[in-house]
Amino acid sequence: MKILIILSRVPFPLEKGDKLRAFNQIKQLSKNHEISIFAINDLGAISEHQAVNVLSKYCKRIEIVNLAWFQIIFNIFRSLVNGLPLQVGYFYSSVAARRLNSMISTVKPDHIYCQLVRTAEYVKDVVDIPKTIDYMDAFSKGVERRIPVASFLFRPILKREHKMLLKYEATVMNWFKSAVIISKQDKEHLSFSGIDSMKIIPNGVDSSYFYPMEVEKKYDVLFCGNMAYSPNIETAEYLVKEILPELLKLQPHVRIGIVGTDPTAQVRALKSKNVEITGWVEDMRTYYASAKVFVAPMQTSIGMQNKLLEAMVMKIPCVTSAMANNAVGAVPEESILIGSDPTTFAKQISSLLNNKDKADRIAENGYNFVLSTYTWERVTDDLERIFS
User: What phi-psi label fits residue 113: left (phi over 0), alpha (psi between -120 and 50 degrees) or beta?
Assistant: First the structure.
């Protein structure tokens, strides 16, 4: 089968969740199918040459469209006029649309797969080729959760975006033969006609890359992610400003590592004698392995936390919020620990630092849970069946 995959970001390097999901799906699908990809590269964010070198191992054709800042400004203005969500308008370019139409004519795909509603506008008029849309996350819910914590000036923009996304997510469903989403929790955040037919395709983890390692323990507690992404910024602040003071009462010399690309000024300001901010790192595995406990106290996140799957499969005991674990589905107190507020997060973390037997038990159970539930081969097989 010839599959054309349309992406709002080039799926390499793998520093964002949507890119990680796309890359691994492409890698698995390429084993049985001919893959072509069409991707937007906004503001020349990545090295096109580097990405093509990697992606060409799995893709027969690669089309990357660079969007300059002035094109993006025009796109956003046009989305305001046309009543589209801003993030849909941001990634939609008439120049890119023409190049995609030309690619479709050349490739003649048997199936089109769009990642995120951001890309749906490009193929809404394609009616003679079966199409699947990956909502991935419930975007509207993610925006809704950010409204209460947004600044006074930014709040009206988010309210408008939430309203537009609710309408657009429902509309998009009618353009595609099939639709998928990352978790049951995200599916339940959506409410419109046809939602019952939407299939759940979770993320996987590459257990041949992420595996238990013996490394000196540099951190008592670790958190990681793209540190320019709002939910990760909010979580890092929550960890340091709310949880850490409670944890210091129990563990006076605790050492926290916050690891991830592009830390904002807000994140860098969290640095202290107890907190290290690393920025981008070459190999995330060594940082997972150097931590006694991994924590993901997400408060406003949607989707699935890849970081939890990666830490668990490296046998690092994890503490997270019920919201984040709802997407993962690990059993509390068996393969993961749950915190509900700064005090309970501190107590759960401290219990693992103080009790090696408990930490080893949670780590072992978490490892076995991920291996039995989340592999890219297994979840992509489910996606492949939807296509065929």
Answer: beta
Label residue 99 exposed, middle or buried (CB < 10 Å: 0-12, 13-18, 19+): middle
Could you give the C-alpha distances from 75 to 30, 91, 175, in angstroms and in order? 33, 7, 22
Say how far apart CA 226 and CA 9 lie, in whole Å: 15
How is residue 86 written in tokens? 């801003």
* Tokens 């219990």 belong to residue: 351
Q: What would the pLDDT profile of 323-356 be if each residue is shown by its tens digit?
A: 999 989 999 999 999 999 999 999 999 999 999 9
Cβ neighbours, 10 Å, residue 293: 26
For 333, left (φ over 0), alpha (ψ -120 to 50), or beta? left
Give SS3 for 340: coil
Backbone angles phi, psi at 355, to 5 degrees: -125, 95
Q: Cβ distance 293 to 273 under 8 Å? A: no
pTM: 0.87
| Strand-strand pairing, 291-296 and 275-279 | unpaired
Q: Domains in the chain, please, with CATH?
A: 2-201 (3.40.50.2000), 219-373 (3.40.50.2000)
Which residues are bridge partners to 320 per DSSP?
296, 338
